[in-house]
Write a structure and sequence with these properties.
Number of helices: 6
Number of strands: 7
CATH superfamily: Vaccinia Virus protein VP39
Mean pLDDT: 90
Radius of gyration: 16 Å
Largest sheet: 7 strands, mixed
CATH architecture: 3-Layer(aba) Sandwich
Distance between the termini: 40 Å
Bound molecules: S-adenosylmethionine
Strand order of the largest sheet: 3-2-1-4-5-7-6
Structural class: alpha/beta
CATH class: Alpha Beta
Oligomer: single chain
């Protein structure tokens, strides 16, 4: 069985680089592997606290890009091209605020949303599924045709339903594991490219 090491190399690397979490390395890996971001891009980051992904995205989009993060918790965003909103993504007013702050269609939506886990497997899967579907619905409203989405996914019985929903909205859907995920973790990332446009699906 994989051993849980709270202070493994990614944890130490995050501390050394002053990053708020090891999560940053997962997105770095995905950006490098799938060429997800170009300078000047507009990105919405769902479930952004404490801000590891925001740090990576701030650098990737550069000074002419725009990143809008949102989370139930307050996240620091000490970069001029990034804003972090506090709110519940299930609340339409929060989603409208993200759209407003983006100021135009997103090239990429990233979602690292995770519910507060209860330890009850069925309940945790249902909560994760609900958040993922809300993230997809939101992405369908804000992403430009041809745009991309990356979303955290927990392996469970809903897997085929999730893949089918993403495949209706995007031309290409892949599932990736990152080296920076904790050993033994069932965490996966969906990488969806070539958004078909709001009318699809
Ligand atoms: C794994 S953390 C994200 C880590 C982040 N990507 C980073 O790099 O620092 C998952 C986040 O999802 C947020 N979250 C869960 N449910 C949410 C909701 N309904 N609306 C907004 N954020 C939510 C949690 O508050 C938590 O901060």
């Amino acid at each position: 069985m994989a051993r849980y090491e709270p202070h493994d190399k990614f944890y130490r690397k995050a501390r050394e680089q002053g990053l708020p979490s090891r999560a940053a390395f997962k997105l770095e890996e995905l950006i490098a592997r799938f060429r997800l971001v170009r300078p000047g891009a507009r990105v919405a980051d769902l479930g952004c606290a404490p801000g590891g992904w925001l740090a990576v995205l701030a650098g990737a989009v550069g000074p002419h890009g725009r990143v809008v993060g949102v989370d139930l918790a307050v996240a620091r965003a000490p970069w001029p091209n990034v804003i972090a909103l506090a709110g519940d993504i299930r609340d339409p007013a929060t989603r409208e605020a993200v759209v407003r702050e983006l100021g135009g269609a997103a090239d990429l939506v990233t979602s690292d949303l995770s519910p507060k886990l209860t330890g009850i497997v069925d309940r945790d899967h249902a909560l994760s599924f609900e958040l993922l579907m809300i993230a997809l619905d939101f992405a369908r409203v804000v992403i430009r045709p041809g745009g991309m989405m990356v979303a955290k996914l927990f392996m469970g019985g809903d897997f085929p339903v999730i893949i089918a929903a993403f495949a209706r909205a995007f031309g290409k859907v892949e599932v990736a594991r990152t080296r920076a995920s904790r050993p033994g973790s069932s965490e996966l990332y969906l990488v969806a490219r070539d958004f078909r446009g709001p009318a699809a699906g």
